[in-house]
Amino acid sequence: MPVICIKTLPLNRPIKINEVLRKLNLKVSEDTGIEANQIWSYWQFIERHLYAVGDSTAAAIQPTSHSPIIEITGFEGKSHAMIELLMRSIAGVISQVLEIEITNIFITYNEVRSGRVFDGGEVVREK
What we know:
Structural class: alpha/beta
Number of helices: 2
Largest sheet: 4 strands, mixed
Number of strands: 8
Helix content: 25-40%
Oligomer: single chain
Radius of gyration: 15 Å
Mean pLDDT: 96
Shape: globular
Distance between the termini: 14 Å
Strand order of the largest sheet: 2-1-5-6
């Protein structure tokens, strides 16, 4: 684990999202040492004009506003340094792929506690 959810307005140009997600997982694995098969990611689109920043909505992703919203869910126990590395790695890939400033990316890291995750047919507990 981590599970990475990326939410954006529609894109301004065609991009193969499946290839972006594969690239993201591999880069995060390389940067953090987390095994690639333990990194899950998915992309959700926000409908046109259903994302407001102040009093402004947009039809598509913008280079300096209406940031991609990225939520990471991870199992408890990661160090602050590891969480920061994970967020920076994701931000770098998304900035490059979407051709937007890294300052226009919003990421949160949400930690789940031992006994509050079900995976692989069982409740996952801290080892």
